[in-house]
Task: inverse folding
């Protein structure tokens, strides 16, 4: 039998074969004309996919956490106030990053499965002068979706910068950076962007670039400083080579391929497909009487689902049986409920049959533990709604 498992975790995800072929191309010099063209095109495509025509894109070797780090270390100065709107594990990470730079951090913590109400955010923003606000678009630990638009509008009203952690969202959830007035939208390559892990990707607004330029103190980070990376982005966009740190040549080639695929499909169409799939998938999950971590469909991500195990199910055995069936899913991540739920990624290039395969693996694993349900009911529900 073919030894292939379907990777259905919330990143890394299944890649398009064209992206994988780009990863396998002969590695060129980082100053080779074809690589310069790839890098320059990727920068231009990011502006389009982010809906940020006047933003400054950055493509830097590192994971999504580097994008989180660079977004704030370049904008924040010691003793500034920062507000973290937390919907789980990655809000906590933002708090830790900001604390590293000697910033006063306030966290507004949502209850598990919920979001922070807008009036609470406004109250906090009105209470003192904040330099920036961080929002997690989709918290991968809870599968909770924030609507960044009204939060960014509040940040603007109170003259704070807004930073959107889109690691589990960008290119899978709609984000109109410039229309919505978001100052930084960041992600990692391994999620809905559809490239293997290793690239920190983000776009910075003109306003935020000015805040960086007008800093009074130096950036407290060497590798991540815009001083080092802005000239590189500008050079490659002007189709010239420049050097600060050796760029991951194959990853950037793969990025170009994936961004072109997304652009060809149309980012709005791609997001709509994520929405259609997510809704049908969750109706299917509910047909098995399984509960979701997000409190309701309005705050449920379209890139992933977080699902509680039913009572009396051995979680380790469940995941083992799903894997033996041929599908890989992820366990829990949020420390308070870690052993009570599992996570499924449904973003990027996945298709209907991947979702049906995942549902059938879940049914198989539930059946192994004599969970009471009608065999095939999740698949029938999925087919009805797709
Ligand atoms: N933010 C979110 C919402 C994430 O899902 C992740 C990764 N799971 C990160 C940040 C960090 O990204 P990375 O693991 O690539 O550093």
Result:
């Amino acid at each position: 039998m073919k030894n292939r498992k379907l990777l259905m975790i919330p990143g890394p995800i299944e890649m398009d074969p064209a992206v994988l072929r780009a990863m396998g191309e002969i590695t060129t010099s980082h100053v080779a004309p074809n690589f310069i063209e790839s890098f320059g095109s990727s920068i231009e495509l990011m502006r389009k996919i982010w809906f940020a025509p006047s933003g400054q894109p950055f493509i830097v070797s590192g994971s999504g956490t580097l994008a989180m780090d660079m977004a704030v270390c370049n904008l924040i100065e010691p003793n500034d106030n920062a507000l973290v709107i937390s919907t789980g594990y990655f809000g906590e990470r933002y708090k830790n990053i900001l604390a590293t730079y000697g910033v006063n951090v306030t966290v507004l913590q949502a209850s598990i499965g919920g979001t922070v109400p807008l009036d609470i955010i406004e109250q906090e923003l009105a209470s003192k002068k904040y330099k920036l606000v961080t929002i997690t678009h989709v918290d991968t630990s809870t599968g909770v979706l924030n609507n960044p638009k009204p939060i960014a509008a509040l940040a603007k009203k109170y003259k704070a910068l807004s930073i959107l952690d889109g690691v589990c969202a960008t290119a899978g959830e709609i984000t109109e950076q410039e229309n919505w007035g978001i100052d930084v939208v960041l992600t990692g390559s391994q999620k809905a962007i559809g490239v293997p892990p290793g690239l920190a990707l983000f776009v910075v607004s003109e306003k935020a670039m000015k805040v960086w330029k007008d800093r009074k103190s130096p950036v407290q980070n060497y590798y991540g400083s815009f001083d080092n990376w802005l000239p590189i982005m500008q050079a490659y966009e002007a189709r010239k080579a420049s050097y600060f740190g050796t760029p991951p040549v194959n990853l950037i080639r793969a990025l170009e391929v994936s961004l072109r695929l997304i652009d060809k499909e149309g980012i709005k169409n791609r997001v709509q497909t994520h929405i259609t799939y997510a809704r049908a998938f969750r109706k299917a999950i509910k047909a098995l009487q399984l509960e979701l971590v997000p409190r309701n469909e309005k705050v449920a991500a379209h890139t992933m689902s977080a699902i509680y195990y039913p009572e009396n199910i051995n979680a380790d055995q469940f995941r083992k049986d799903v894997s033996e069936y041929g599908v890989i899913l992820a366990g829990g991540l949020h420390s308070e409920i870690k052993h009570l739920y599992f996570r499924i990624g449904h973003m990027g290039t996945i298709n209907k049959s991947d979702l049906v395969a995942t549902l059938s693996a879940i049914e198989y694993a539930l059946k192994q533990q004599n969970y009471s349900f009608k065999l095939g009911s999740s698949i029938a529900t999925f087919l009805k709604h797709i």
Remarks:
- The mean pLDDT is 97.
- The longest strand covers residues 56-61.
- Residues 275 and 302 are 5 Å apart (CA to CA).
- The pocket of 4'-deoxy-4'-aminopyridoxal-5'-phosphate is lined by residues 11, 63-65, 68, 90, 136, 139-140, 165, 167-168, 188 (CB under 6 Å).
